[in-house]
Write a structure and sequence with these properties.
Layout: H1 13-33, H2 38-44, H3 47-61, H4 65-88, H5 99-113, H6 119-136, H7 141-153, H8 158-168, H9 184-188, H10 199-221
Helix pairs in contact: 1-2, 1-3, 1-10, 3-5, 3-7, 4-5, 4-10, 5-6, 5-7, 6-7, 7-8
Length: about 220
């Protein structure tokens, strides 16, 4: 008799990723086409905390962290031109780098943190990673790295993790980011299951949707 599958209530990894990319898409549509409609940007604030949470979860479930880093690095490079075109209308802009660079720095950071137990060293690693994000002008900058560190360091204390993850959204000057605290609700409902496997779809969605949005802006300007 075939073994019955273990179904658990809540969001699996696939569903959280879908929620995050839908939120991101709404955010980018609002940023590019409807900058005067703040509700679209508020919805978009859910994406980054979810992606950071899943990055940490992915690290602890990956079979090969080096391949994980390679994927993030590859798509960081592939996404840079679409990112700069969508938000800067040029092929390359040194002022800001796409979010894959932030996630890559964060992944390297948590890989080191996972091997270190000395508190002084761990704090130094986090500060160094935050500095790297600022140096490269990555999306979300040092605050983005801080959130990844928060999720990694509080992984075994879920109540603390949710509270700290929500509080992070209030470190920003823009009140729009306050809405990101709501991302802790689906994160708290994460059931630990993988769900459907569409790994490269999520990687490809980022540069492809940015390129499509850029082409739509070009067409609308004609």
């Amino acid at each position: 008799m075939e073994k019955e599958k273990d179904y658990r209530w809540g969001f699996n990894t696939f569903q959280l990723k879908m929620l995050a990319i839908l939120s991101m898409l709404i955010d980018h549509i609002g940023a590019i086409f409807y900058p005067d409609v703040p509700v679209l940007r508020c919805v978009g604030r859910l994406a980054f905390p979810i992606f950071c949470f899943l990055l940490v979860e992915g690290f602890y479930h990956t079979r090969n962290v080096w391949k994980y880093m390679l994927r993030l690095g590859t798509f960081a490079i592939l996404s840079e031109a679409p990112f700069d075109l969508a938000f800067g209308y040029r092929l390359w802009s040194p002022e800001k780098q796409n979010v894959f660079f932030t996630l890559l720095i964060g992944l390297i950071m948590i890989w080191i943190l996972d091997q270190e137990r000395e508190i002084v060293t761990r704090v130094g690693v986090v500060i160094l990673a935050m500095w790297a994000a600022e140096l490269l002008h990555t999306d979300y900058g040092f605050r983005g790295i801080l959130l990844i560190a928060v999720f990694q360091m509080t992984g075994s204390r879920k109540t603390v993790q949710y509270a700290a993850g929500a509080a992070w959204n209030f470190l920003w000057r823009s009140r729009l980011q306050y809405a990101g605290a709501l991302a802790m609700i689906p994160i708290a409902l994460y059931n630990g299951q993988k769900g459907r496997s569409m790994k490269y779809f999520f990687y490809l969605f980022y540069p492809v949707h940015l390129l499509v949005l850029y082409l739509l802006t070009v067409r609308s300007a004609m």
